[in-house]
C-alpha cells in the first residue's frame, strides 16, 4: 500500500461503486467487510468485497502528466495547473466562454458535483457542462418529474420493498448489478409476485415468478397492454385516480386501443401473460413498480418510463403506504449527481437553470449577478458530438468519466476528442480517456477523502476518509480550487475542504426540490443518513414522499399520454440482428476501476457476445470463438457465448471493455427528445467470424 491509514480502527464507510451504497468498514490494511446499513443489511457483492484493492493499485496515478512531443510526461502540480489555466484563458479569449466545456460524472460526490457546476458557470462562464448521468437515469428523471413534479429515484426507503407481495422490475437486473438489493424482494418472490420484464433471461429473470420477455425496444407497448388489462379486467383503482391524479381520460384514449392481443403482436409477450401480470400487480396488498436502464436507455426512454408510471398510477401505487413507483439508479451518486448543478439544464437544489427565481437564489449564494449566469448548454452526447467542430467547444475538462468507453458511438466520440485543442482529465488511473489527454491530474478516490453521496433512495450519507492519499495525489476539490485561483477567483469562492463546500451546497439547495439545508456534517458524522428534503436542522428527513400530496401545484400526479414507437434503428437485410448492452456482476460501468482488480478481472477479463446457439450456427460461430459484431457506426470483437435462453434475433454485449472490445462502438446515439438519453439498449447489427489464423 502506498498510503497511510488515518486511524488504526476500522472506518465506517460506503462502497465506491453503485447506487445501493452498501455500508462497509475498511481496516488500516484496506480489508473491507460489510456492515449493517439498511440498503445492504450486511451484504456485499464481489465488487464491494474487493474494493480495497483499488486503494493499493500499482496502476494508480501519483503525479500530473503533461503531453510533450506526443508523450504524457510527469510534471508538477503547479506546472500542470499553470498550463491548463493559461490555455483555458487563451481559448476563451479567442473563441468565447462556450469554447470551454466540462464533463462530470454520476460517481462524483455531492460536493464535487456542486463545485464543478459552480466552476463551469462562474469560473469559466460556460454553459457547456453536462455529465455521464445523462447516459444513466435521465429518462426516469424526466418521466418522474412530469408525473410527480419532483424526481427522487425511489421516493421510499429500499427496506419498504421487503413488505411487498408484488414487484414489477422493468429493465433492471439487480441480481447481477446490485445483488444485496435482491434480499428486499424475498417476500414478493415467495408470494409468486416477482414480475420481471427483460428481453434476456437474466439472473434476475431466473428468480422471477413471471418473466415477460418483450422484443427489444417494445417495452412501451407491453406496458400499454398490461395497463389495458388492468382496466379491462376491473383492476383500475378508480378512487385513487379520481382523488390523486389528473389526465387518465387523455391516456385512456391511446391505451384503449392496446388490448393485450395487439400488444402481443408487437412485443411477442403472450396476452395471457400480460393479463396475469396485471392480476398479480393489482391483487397484491403491497405492490411496487420499479424501472431500470433497460426501460430508460431508448430514443423514447422518457415515454417508456411514463408508460410504467401510468400503470403504477392506474393501480394507485405512488404515494400509497406500502406501495409505490421507483427508479433503480445505477451510478454511486446517480441521484445526488443530478441535483447539484453539473447537469446542462440545472442549478443546485435540483432547480431549473431557466427559472428566474432559481437563478436569483443561486446567484445570491455565489455572490454574482444572476444575469451573468449562463443558460442551459448542450446535453452530454450533443456536447461530445460538437467537440472540435467550428461551432463547438475546443477545450474539455473531464471529471469522473471515461467517455472513450462509455459514450454511445464511441468511435465517433473518440475522433471528436482527438480534434480538441485541449483535453484535461482528472482520474485515479490512466483511463482510456485520460490516455488521450493533454494534461492528466491524479485525484483521490473513495476512502482517501470525505464526501457525501445520495443513494438510490435519496438518502444522503457520508463516505469517510480512511487513508491519506498517496503523495502527489490531490482531491478534485483541490484541483478546482487551484484552477479557480489561477483564473482570478478569490479563494473563498472555491474552497477545497469538502465540509466547507457542503455548507455552501446546503445554502444553495435551500428551498429547492432537493433541499439539503438541514443536513450537516455534524449530523452525518453522528451516524445519520437522512432522505431529502431536509429543510431544517431538526428535520428528520423525508423517507417517504407523496403520502399526502404530489409536488405539482394542484397536488396531483399526472398521467402522461405516450405512444409506442419501437427501436429507432430496425433490423434489415444488412443488419439482421439486434444488439443490447448491459453489465456483468464483476465489472462496473466503463470498467476503469474493476478491470484493475485481479479477482474481478480474472473472472471476466474480456468482452463476450451472448447469443442463441442457433443464431451462432447460422453465422458459422461456435462457443469460445471470436466474433465480429458490426453496426452502422462501427465494429467490435467479442468471444461467443451460446445461451439457449437468448432470443433468436438478439445478441448481448457487456459495455465494460476497452479498445476493439468496446460495445459502445456499436451503439446508436439517437437521442430521446425529452431526456436527451441515447438509445444504448438496442441497435441493428450483423455478425461474422474473426479469422484468427
Ligand atoms: Fe453494494 Fe453496489 Fe458496492 Fe456491490 S457495487 S457492494 S451492490 S454498493
Describe the structure.
The chain has 23 helices and 30 strands. By secondary structure, it is α/β, with parallel strands linked by helices. It has three domains: 270 residues, Rossmann fold, CATH 3.40.50.740; 190 residues, 3-Layer(aba) Sandwich (Dimethylsulfoxide Reductase, domain 2), CATH 3.40.228.10; 113 residues, Beta Barrel (Barwin-like endoglucanases). Strand 28 and strand 29 form a beta hairpin. 59% of the residues are buried. The model has no long low-confidence stretch (mean pLDDT 96). Bound molecules: iron/sulfur cluster. Iron/sulfur cluster binds next to helix 1.
Q: Structural class, please? A: alpha/beta
Examine the secondary-structure arrangement and name the CATH architecture of the largest domain: 3-Layer(aba) Sandwich
| CATH class label of the largest domain | Alpha Beta
Q: Segments where pLDDT lies below 50 for 5+ residues?
A: none
Taking all Cα atoms into account, the compactness measure Rg is: 24 Å
Organism: Amycolatopsis marina
InterPro entries: Asp_de-COase-like_dom_sf, MoPterin_dinucl-bd_dom, Mopterin_OxRdtase, Mopterin_OxRdtase_4Fe-4S_dom, Prok_molybdopt-oxidoreductase
GO cellular component, one term: membrane
Domain 4Fe-4S Mo/W bis-MGD-type: 8-57
Amino acid at each position: 500500500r502506498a498510503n497511510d491509514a488515518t486511524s488504526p480502527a476500522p472506518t465506517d464507510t460506503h462502497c465506491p461503486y453503485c447506487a445501493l451504497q452498501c455500508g462497509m468498514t475498511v481496516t488500516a490494511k484496506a480489508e473491507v467487510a460489510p456492515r449493517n446499513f439498511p440498503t445492504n443489511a450486511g451484504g456485499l457483492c464481489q465488487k464491494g468485497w474487493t474494493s480495497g484493492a483499488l486503494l493499493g493499485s500499482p496502476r494508480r496515478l501519483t503525479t500530473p502528466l503533461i503531453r510533450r512531443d506526443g508523450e504524457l510526461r510527469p510534471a508538477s502540480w503547479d506546472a500542470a495547473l499553470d498550463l491548463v489555466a493559461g490555455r483555458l484563458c487563451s481559448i476563451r479569449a479567442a473563441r468565447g466562454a462556450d469554447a470551454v466545456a466540462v464533463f462530470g460524472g454520476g460517481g462524483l460526490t455531492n460536493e464535487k458535483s456542486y463545485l464543478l457546476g459552480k466552476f463551469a458557470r462562474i469560473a469559466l462562464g460556460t454553459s457547456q457542462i453536462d455529465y455521464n448521468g445523462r447516459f444513466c437515469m435521465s429518462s426516469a428523471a424526466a418521466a418522474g418529474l412530469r408525473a410527480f413534479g419532483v424526481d427522487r429515484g425511489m421516493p421510499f426507503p429500499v427496506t419498504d420493498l421487503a413488505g411487498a407481495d408484488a414487484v414489477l422490475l422493468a429493465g433492471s437486473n439487480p441480481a447481477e448489478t446490485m445483488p444485496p438489493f435482491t434480499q428486499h424482494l424475498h417476500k414478493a418472490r415467495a408470494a409468486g409476485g416477482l414480475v420481471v420484464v427483460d428481453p434476456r433471461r437474466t439472473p434476475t429473470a431466473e428468480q422471477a415468478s413471471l418473466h415477460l420477455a418483450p422484443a427489444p425496444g417494445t417495452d412501451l407497448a407491453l406496458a400499454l397492454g398490461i395497463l389495458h388489462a388492468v382496466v379491462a379486467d376491473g383492476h383500475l383503482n378508480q378512487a385513487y385516480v379520481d382523488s390523486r391524479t389528473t389526465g387518465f381520460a387523455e391516456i385512456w384514449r391511446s391505451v384503449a386501443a392496446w388490448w393485450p392481443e395487439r400488444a402481443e403482436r408487437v412485443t411477442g409477450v403472450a396476452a395471457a401473460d400480460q393479463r396475469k401480470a396485471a392480476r398479480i400487480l393489482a391483487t397484491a396488498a403491497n405492490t411496487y413498480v420499479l424501472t431500470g436502464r433497460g426501460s430508460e436507455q431508448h430514443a423514447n426512454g422518457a415515454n417508456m418510463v411514463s408508460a410504467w408510471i401510468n400503470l403504477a398510477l392506474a393501480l394507485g401505487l405512488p404515494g400509497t403506504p406500502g406501495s409505490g413507483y421507483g427508479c433503480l439508479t445505477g451510478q454511486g451518486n446517480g441521484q445526488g449527481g443530478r441535483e447539484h448543478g453539473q447537469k446542462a439544464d440545472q442549478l443546485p437544489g435540483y432547480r431549473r437553470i431557466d427559472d428566474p427565481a432559481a437563478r436569483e437564489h443561486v446567484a445570491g449564494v455565489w455572490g454574482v449577478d444572476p444575469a451573468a449566469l449562463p443558460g442551459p448548454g448542450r446535453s452530454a452526447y450533443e456536447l461530445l458530438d460538437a467537440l472540435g467542430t467550428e461551432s463547438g467547444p475546443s477545450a474539455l475538462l473531464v471529471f469522473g468519466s471515461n467517455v472513450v468507453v462509455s459514450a454511445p458511438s464511441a468511435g465517433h466520440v473518440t475522433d471528436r476528442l482527438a480534434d480538441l485543442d485541449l483535453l484535461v482529465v482528472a482520474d485515479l488511473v490512466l483511463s482510456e480517456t485520460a490516455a488521450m489527454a493533454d494534461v492528466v491530474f491524479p485525484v483521490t478516490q473513495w476512502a482517501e477523502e470525505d464526501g457525501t453521496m445520495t443513494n438510490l433512495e435519496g438518502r444522503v450519507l457520508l463516505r469517510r476518509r480512511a487513508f491519506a492519499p498517496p503523495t502527489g495525489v490531490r482531491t478534485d476539490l483541490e484541483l478546482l480550487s487551484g484552477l479557480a485561483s489561477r483564473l482570478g477567483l478569490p479563494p473563498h469562492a472555491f474552497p477545497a475542504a469538502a465540509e466547507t463546500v457542503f455548507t455552501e451546497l446546503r445554502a444553495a439547495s435551500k428551498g429547492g426540490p432537493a433541499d439539503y439545508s438541514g443536513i450537516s456534517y455534524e449530523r452525518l458524522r453522528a451516524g445519520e443518513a437522512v432522505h431529502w428534503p431536509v429543510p431544517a436542522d431538526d428535520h428528520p428527513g423525508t423517507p417517504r414522499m407523496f403520502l399526502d400530496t404530489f409536488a405539482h401545484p394542484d397536488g396531483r400526479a399526472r398521467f402522461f399520454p405516450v405512444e409506442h414507437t419501437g427501436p429507432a434503428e430496425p433490423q434489415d437485410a444488412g443488419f439482421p440482428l439486434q444488439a443490447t448492452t448491459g453489465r456483468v456482476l464483476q465489472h462496473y460501468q466503463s470498467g476503469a476501476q474493476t478491470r484493475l482488480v485481479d479477482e474481478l478481472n480474472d473472472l471476466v477479463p474480456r468482452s463476450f457476445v451472448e447469443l442463441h446457439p442457433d443464431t451462432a450456427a447460422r453465422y458459422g460461430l461456435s462457443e469460445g470463438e471470436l466474433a465480429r459484431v458490426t453496426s452502422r457506426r462501427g465494429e467490435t470483437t467479442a468471444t461467443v457465448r451460446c445461451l439457449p435462453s437468448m432470443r433468436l434475433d438478439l445478441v448481448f454485449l457487456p459495455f465494460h471493455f476497452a479498445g476493439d472490445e468496446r460495445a459502445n462502438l456499436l451503439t446508436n446515439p439517437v437521442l430521446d427528445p425529452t431526456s436527451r438519453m441515447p438509445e444504448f439498449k438496442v441497435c441493428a447489427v450483423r455478425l461474422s467470424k474473426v479469422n484468427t489464423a
